[in-house]
Amino acid sequence: MTSRITDKPPQFLSNPPLTLEKNSVSVPPESQNFHWHGFTQMADFQNIVIERAEGCWLTTTSGQRLFDGVASLWCNVHGHRNPKMDEAIRAQLDRVSHITTLGMSADITDQLAERLAEVTPGDLKHVFFSSDGSSAVEAALKMALQYWHLKNQTTPSSTSTAKTRYLALSSAYHGDTTGAVSLGGIKYFHQLFAPIVFTPVRGPLPCSYRLPDGIRDATACDYYAHEIESLLKQHHAELAAVVMEPLVQGAAGMITHPAGLLARIRELCDQYNVLMIVDEVATGFGRTGRMFACDHEGVTPDILCMGKGITAGYLPMAATIARPHVFEAFLGKSSERKQFYHGHTFGGNPLAAAAAVASLDLFRDTQLTETIDAKSQFLRECLAPIADHPHVGDVRGRGLMVGIELVADRNRKTPFDSDRLIGRNVCERATELGAWIRPLGDVIVLMPPLVASNEELRFLADTVTRAIEEVLADID
């Protein structure tokens, strides 16, 4: 198999391939000890320091240029140094950079809340701001729990069970704060912290690649919906909410759900009187080809969590947006103490709000979301040659959210031994060739900025194809 990439970089990559300098496993240089990197083994990490960026490209302190193949951890939308984004933040600096939203607000933050209500599904309209996706999920968990507490005060029942638990899918990932970790089901992210977390009701992993024995694509939605309904029948009296990522479970390895499952779960939540919390931190803001992934199946959750792309990757911000029936349960006299007992110092920060409003303006003015389906199709066409590689098990995803799963045995879908670090080695080679990507185990993740051109998408695909071919050339 031969990839289309040549040793000569394309015109927009004007420097030679990056050569990574691997540090000593025993003692990293002291200059690298000050900054402790997340999800990074500091004994042997590869020190890539970015000095500046423009469009879809990053420039290191040594002058190397790298294509931002994971959109700076799935959040960059309009590219780096977008003039309209930059100007919006500069203009807000001349007005006010930060005020609290506990009992007051900034005009730009109120404007953003209204704009978010306009672009989110259905009647979601009450926006609670925080600083990151994990915090948005934490707010949703507490919001749901307090909602049922308030509802029980209004209509108490001697036979009712307190609705204080949550149903989360297998291999779930909803963030790294304690409540979000409690929902999680990924071994290396979550099991270590078991002593300090709560235990959810664990649902199935609705994977379209590794289906259970006897289940086919045509029956997968019914199968997984039945599994979830069985759990709801058993636990609905104690469940505050079902919490899930819609369509794609990102950190689980870009696991794609069967079409129609999201809508079925919405129906089941209504049937069993359980709130539906949808985590669109990764899938929101155009990533799947719609503004929100819920839009694909016409679903309006009771609570929706958003982050990452909300400011187009410029500044930390997240939000939890609820439907009226949730919000109204918290209304009453101050003496009744029904207010939401939760808040963040930087929630609704005006600078971040200005960036978010500017991003929504760009979505509207450029009709960016409408371009994603065509770009997605083009990227998949560029990846077609690698799809037949004997160690590529699956190429999957939605929109510009792609996972390439590498396997030891394609026919049996057998994974590689995790200690071989196949995914990591492929990503390191891709970085050497000029595209910065990160793996999820042995799933190679491609999440470019939404504004990436076809030429840039082809470069990304060709670079990753070459990296896979080279790393797996002599694999046994």
TrEMBL record:
Binding residues annotated for pyridoxal 5'-phosphate, in chain numbering: G133, S134, D279, H344, T345
Polar residues compositional bias, start-end: 12-27
Pathway this chain belongs to: Cofactor biosynthesis; biotin biosynthesis; 7,8-diaminononanoate from 8-amino-7-oxononanoate (SAM route): step 1/1
InterPro entries: Aminotrans_3, Aminotrans_3_PPA_site, BioA, PyrdxlP-dep_Trfase, PyrdxlP-dep_Trfase_major, PyrdxlP-dep_Trfase_small
Keyword Protein transport: no
Residues annotated to bind substrate: Y173, K308, G343, R438
Any single Pfam family the record assigns to this protein: Aminotran_3
Protein name: Adenosylmethionine-8-amino-7-oxononanoate aminotransferase
Organism: Rhodopirellula maiorica SM1
Gene name linked to the record: bioA
